[in-house]
Write a structure and sequence with these properties.
Elements (H helix, E strand, L loop, with lengths): L4 E6 L5 E5 H9 L14 E7 L2 H5 L2 E6 L2 E7 L1
Antiparallel strand pairs: 1-2, 1-3, 4-5
């Protein structure tokens, strides 16, 4: 079974981006590139792929603030 989510880490700022595999493949097929959403760097490295979003987020703590998920602490 194909995995749904892909975790990428920026080589410049070190922040994590969680992306949907179908959207990543579609973007690359169109001849475009994937970049960090925080700093815009194209140096992003694949960390892992999973079907469970909780596995992508287990290295940090999150809480809900006004209906949106916010990161509280990063290890």
């Amino acid at each position: 079974m194909k995995e749904i989510y892909r975790t990428r880490i920026c080589g410049k700022c070190g922040k994590t981006n969680i992306l949907i595999n179908d959207e990543v493949e579609d973007t690359i097929k169109k001849g475009k590139y994937i970049s960090c959403s925080h700093c815009g760097s194209q140096r992003v490295v694949n960390e892992n792929e999973t079907s469970d979003l909780r596995k992508c987020m287990e290295h940090s703590s999150y809480k809900k603030v006004r209906g949106a998920i916010r990161q509280v602490r990063q290890e």
